[in-house]
Amino acid sequence: MEYPFIDVLIIGAGPIGLACGLEAKKAGYSYLIVEKGCLVNSLYKYPLNMTFFSTADRLEIGGIPFASIQAKPNRPEALEYYRRVTDSQGLNINLFEEVTALEEAAGIYQIQTSKNTYQAKHVIIAIGFYDVPNLLNIPGEYLSKVRHYYFDPHFYYKQKIIVIGANNSAADVALETYRKGAEVTMIIREAELGRIKYWTKPDLENRIQEGSVKAYFQSHLLAVRENEVDVQTPDGQITIPNDYVLAMTGYQPQFHLLEKFGITLSPDLKRHPQYHPETMETNRKNVFLAGVICGGMDTHIWFIENSREHAVKIIQHIQKQTPTV
Description:
Layout: E1 5-11, H1 15-27, E2 31-34, H2 41-44, H3 75-88, E3 93-94, E4 99-105, E5 108-113, E6 117-125, E7 132-133, E8 146-147, E9 160-164, H4 168-179, E10 183-187, H5 201-210, E11 214-216, E12 220-224, E13 228-233, E14 236-241, E15 244-247, E16 251-252, H6 255-260, E17 287-289, H7 304-321
Helix pairs in contact: 1-7
């Protein structure tokens, strides 16, 4: 049976996957971007009122200007920008189509998805890490009141909220829910707040100092029950009445998918995938990595701003190996 043949198949329609599509199109290759969710699926899952740390120009792809009315663009502006890029450039993209298998024979890859089968000479894996939350591994974690994703603060009006974490996401959740009428308690493993946007950190520090937001430092959650939680603090174990637990503990790449695709991962806890930093080619010939997936568990290394260049590196390498006519 003959399957559609593509020069470059790109897995993931986040900003870096789109950037790879732009570069492939510019170079004259046939290409297809396949995405298991919606366009820029990870950004779509971001909190409703999220503001990026970066300026708009740092989020641009393909040299296409990102106009923002604010110094720091927000989630709706980013979604609008990436939709506009996709439409204006006529990117070849299939949404809500999940890649399930990647097999190679005679230098050609056969890619099985939930909807079709394709053949491609080159494959770019540009998936993010927002689908697999870092779990707490404590009793009660699977109760519906425990959530690893946060969207809108209104839902938590007049609720007793536990926020776990010390970085940007936890800070935003704590401040937004507090200002929408929640009773907020933060549980922080470290002795102080972590990496937080410079305009947010003083605000949170002041709320903690005045007691509007309660914070337990050098503490961790022990167990969750329907109406309360147990917390280990430096002064001993305490029980806190509680309605919802928002675990802003971060996320990790889909390592099972990389392993399924035959990508070698480092044996340590960092689980760094193997790739050449100049070409982004993995241990599998003509299979490349792009974007945040390259960092393994070091999810703070690669962002849109500094991984846009991966798209250029990959396509330039492909051009050296397989020039277009």
